[in-house]
Amino acid sequence: MMEQIATTPFGGGRMSARLFLRQRAAAERQEKLRAGAGGNDGGRADKWQLMRAVTEARRAYGIGDRTISVLEALVSFASERELDGTAPIIVFPSNRELSLRARGMAPATIRRHLAALVEAGLIFRRDSANGKRFCRRDETGGLEDAFGFDLAPLALRAGEIFEAAEAVRAEDRAQRALRGEVTLHQRDIAKIIATALEEGRGGDWLDYSARLAALAAGLGRRAALGLLTDRRTALQRLRAEVENAYLSSLSEEEMSGSDLQTEQHIQNSNTDQNLESCGRETQTAKAVNAARPAPEQKMAISLDRLIRLCPDIADYGRDGVTSWADLLAAADLVRAMLGISPDAWRKAKAAMGEQAAAVVIAALLQRGEAIRSPGGYLRDLTEKAGRGAFSIYPMLQALERGEGRRI
């Protein structure tokens, strides 16, 4: 039997200093383990538990799933369930058998993945004089010499592999927790913005929406832990801004909503009211409300941002558009140019409020030829406003995205 097993690769395979040093270190480690000086790490492991750990820690060793499939095929040729790295563990499958256990992988592909396993230091090549894989037995049938692939490095690194797998699991847990936190921040911010826009709250909500979209971009399924941490911090700051802006937009009556509900309950509990008198008062109130113009809607966008989205409207102001009054005057001029009748314009202002109607005119002007019928579109919005279903938010969003859909 050979005293020292072959270390250099057969044929055109090159010997490197790194490979030589790895083989030397493995041999010294085996000597220490056989002498009982290996410490807690005995260089042994259940081969299937070890394969699971390699699969989890594959990124740490720079190998992919197909390379692991070849390693698993090699491990399946080891006769014992436990891999004992105190001595060489030589497996010598034929190319055909190795291909079958690698799920029919082509020989050229197998050779490439075997080279990757050697490069990662998980196996050694133990080539014979002619490069063939075989074993030589003695007169009693015992294994005398074997040439093929040595799995001892895999067993000797078992402790390191298990630690790497645990580190990967810990990172995955932290990543899942961070991703969940990021998702919750994104959802809460988006819903607060949507609520503010639907309610017509004052504030630059489209700017908040754009910043949220920027923070949500680039977060793929395998986003790095550092990137997720940075995004969470930025989202926490944005959330604080959005929440403060929404709270600041609430009136004193809204902030004390419980008192209003109590007052309303007391009023509704007065059973001494004369029903006929109540009916007359209700009809009178309806008549008065019908004669009043629609209450001015709180703008969900600042004037400066509106001009950035709809710069064309500024050309129709006498000295530009620097105030909402300038915008109203410019919109009155533009609506005639767009073919919108005075009656349709009056009804739009009554249903939407003057500022909101002026914003619509600015948007219609900016969209230009993309709008087939400005008058018909305004009448449609006016009808929605009469039903309480009007919102300028979708139009502003379309302008923000620069969409050119025909309306």
UniProtKB/TrEMBL annotation:
Residue ranges of domain Plasmid replication protein C N-terminal in the record: 25-196
This protein's name: Replication initiation protein
Domain of life: Bacteria
Pfam families in alphabetical order: RP-C (PF03428), RP-C_C (PF11800)
Record-linked SUPFAM superfamilies: Winged helix' DNA-binding domain
Biological classification of the source: Bacteria, Pseudomonadati, Pseudomonadota, Alphaproteobacteria, Hyphomicrobiales
Domain Plasmid replication protein C C-terminal: from-to ranges: 303-400
InterPro entries: RepABC_RepC, RepC_C, RepC_N, WH_DNA-bd_sf
Signal sequence extent: none
